[in-house]
Amino acid sequence: MATSAKAHIGTDFGAHAEIGFLDGLLHPFTGLDHLAAMLAVGFWSALSARRLWTTPLAFAAMLLAGALLGLAGIELPAVEPMIAASLLVLGLLVALRTQMPAMLAAALVGVFAVFHGVAHGTELAGAANIEGPLLGMLLATLALHATGLGLGLALRHTAWVSRMAGAGVAMFGVTLLAQLA
């Protein structure tokens, strides 16, 4: 399993010319960084009933926007550090059970999602067919958000669970940031 903050499909674009829907669908499950981020977004959303789906949908939309930027060859600075930082921040939001207005929460996760998306889009740039992998990645992202949301709803009355889960995600982010330093 990939542990660095990368899209982790690979960097040999020619080798990915034939990737498809299933590759995109499975991709978010193959890297701990993306898996943790998607679950944390859902879990955090469950901590405030006002925004159950606003934040996950914002993340998915901005993930797609970022992927399209990456596919277009638009580079953003510090993509890997921002992916790692997203884990730190999302983990802290879960651990501290932070509540904020829905639009602010959506904007916050949206910024991080753009960086996650750019990493994926850059890696997919050499693929012959990007629609299939992008659709698969979006569906898997939403499924992971839903899983995190379900876990968060089931466990939201047990504060220590969210504190431990969030602390784990935050520490993972710190570890990735330290590896990048």
Automatic annotation (TrEMBL):
Alphabetical keyword list: Membrane, Transmembrane, Transmembrane helix
A Pfam family that the UniProt record links to this protein: HupE_UreJ
KW DNA damage (keyword) present: no
Keyword Mitochondrion: no
InterPro entries, alphabetized: HupE_UreJ
Transmembrane annotation, as ranges: 25-45, 52-72, 78-96, 103-122, 134-153
Protein name: HupE/UreJ family protein
